[in-house]
Each structure stands twice: as structure tokens, then as C-alpha cells.
Specification:
single chain, alpha/beta, Rossmann fold, seven-stranded mixed sheet, two-stranded antiparallel sheet, 7 helices, 9 strands, hydrolase
Length: 235
């Protein structure tokens, strides 16, 4: 089933897209409101569409099998836990459909960025470094990959000439997803050729912050400039 979407459309000609995945138990509209509250406005651009999808309602093992809006199931929230390949593969179908719809609208893969918060950031890492390495960039906030992740296997066998640039943020006081897990994920991805930056956030729990969103807003602009700027730079 295709997840429900909340979209902030480009205010001008749409030439790039960002897909922002929420954390476990949340929804796309909630993340949009969270971003809006912290920035005092929407994450909005003249040429970039921002998509906030909502995960399907499904049984979630860390909540004793209760239904929750989660992208995938997992045995526990722990870097040492095993991934559920069956659950991940179902999730990949939804993500691929989202991306394919943007491509069908004329947006090339290298003009699409994926990212997310917590579980959504983990999904973005799977998307950019396992499913679609041709994407324009990946961001992950307060996120991690399991140590035996299929993402690492995929990168080890990758023949991609270039991988999407990575922007990671993590609260130093995060008790739900310790910063060490995020740092370890980043360092492991670097070993497999991923280039990017890891930003520890002082006095920050498991949460988005105005400072990280402001940084992210500029990074997205730099990675997905207006097409007329690219033409001028080549002249």
C-alpha cells in the first residue's frame, strides 16, 4: 500500500524533489508541522518539492506487536539487532514507487534527495546506499544502521562510480538512539566510500532542532541548485 503524502510544492518550476521520512509512530503531516514550528516557516524552495510520506500501519515488535506507523519492523531498537529482511523488502516497494513517481514527473534521480528522522533516517540510508545510489544526496537525523545491515553488504559489492553525499546530525544527549550508534554508522559508511559530514548537536535529545534544520535547508539548496544557475555556471 502506498503511504499517504503531505507535500509542500515548489513555488515556481519544479525541477528537484526531497523526500523526508518520519520516525517510528509518527506521520508525514506531523513532521511537516514540527519543521514549520522550528523554522517558523515551511521548508520551501522555488524549484524543489518537499514530500512528507506517512508509513503504513503495521505490527511493531518493540511495542509488543501493537500497530504503529512504522516503515519496517525490527526485533529491537539496538545497533546490534538483526534487520528483518522481509519487512525491509516490503518497505522498499513503497519507497521505490515514491521515487519512480518523481522520475515520471521529469525529475532525474540526481535531483532527488532522501532523508529522515530516526527510523526515517535509517530508511533514507537504505534508500541512498542500497536501493538507489544514483540519488542526489542523503540526510539522516538521530539515526543508525544495524551492524550487519544489508546496506554495508550492498556498498561492499557496489560498482557505483559515485555515491550520494551524506549529511548526518545527532543529539549528544540522545538516550533513545545514542550518538555513538550514529557515529559508528557514519564511520562504517565512510569506510565503504560514502563522503559526507557528521554533526553532533550539543544539549540535544532525540529531536530535530532549529540549528540542524537551518543547516539542512542550506545543504539542500547547495545540492539541488536552480537549473538556471547550473546553466550559467557552465557558460
Amino acid at each position: 500500500m502506498q503511504p499517504a503524502l503531505k507535500t509542500i510544492n515548489a513555488t515556481g518550476k519544479h525541477t528537484a524533489s526531497v523526500i523526508f521520512f518520519h520516525g517510528s509512530g509518527d506521520t508525514g503531516p506531523n513532521v511537516l508541522e514540527w519543521v514549520r514550528f522550528l523554522l517558523g516557516r515551511d521548508l520551501e524552495y522555488p524549484h524543489i518539492k518537499i514530500i512528507y510520506p506517512t508509513a503504513p500501519l503495521q505490527k511493531y515488535t518493540p511495542l509488543d506487536g501493537q500497530l504503529s506507523t512504522v516503515w519496517f519492523d525490527r526485533k529491537s531498537v539496538n545497533i546490534a539487532a538483526q534487520e528483518s529482511k522481509k519487512s525491509m523488502s516490503r518497505c522498499y516497494e513503497s519507497v521505490n514507487k515514491l521515487i519512480d513517481e518523481e522520475v515520471a514527473n521529469g525529475i532525474p534521480l540526481n535531483r532527488i534527495i532522501v532523508g529522515g528522522f530516526s527510523m526515517g533516517g535509517a530508511l533514507a540510508l537504505h534508500t541512498g546506499y542500497h536501493l538507489r545510489p544514483e540519488l542526489g544526496g542523503v540526510f539522516a537525523h538521530s539515526s543508525f544502521l544495524n551492524r550487519g545491515s544489508v546496506v554495508y553488504e550492498s556498498l561492499q559489492n557496489s560498482k557505483a562510480e559515485a555515491l550520494p553525499e551524506l549529511r548526518m546530525f545527532h543529539g549528544e544527549r540522545d538516550t533513545l538512539v545514542p550518538q555513538d550508534w550514529g557515529q559508528e554508522t557514519f564511520e562504517t559508511l565512510k569506510k565503504f566510500g560514502v563522503k559526507g559530514t557528521f554533526h553532533p548537536l550539543r544539549n540535544t535529545l532525540h529531536e530535530l532542532k532549529t540549528a540542524s534544520l537551518t543547516d539542512l535547508q542550506k545543504w539542500i539548496q547547495d545540492k539541488l541548485p536552480p537549473l538556471e544557475n547550473q546553466v550559467q555556471n557552465k557558460l
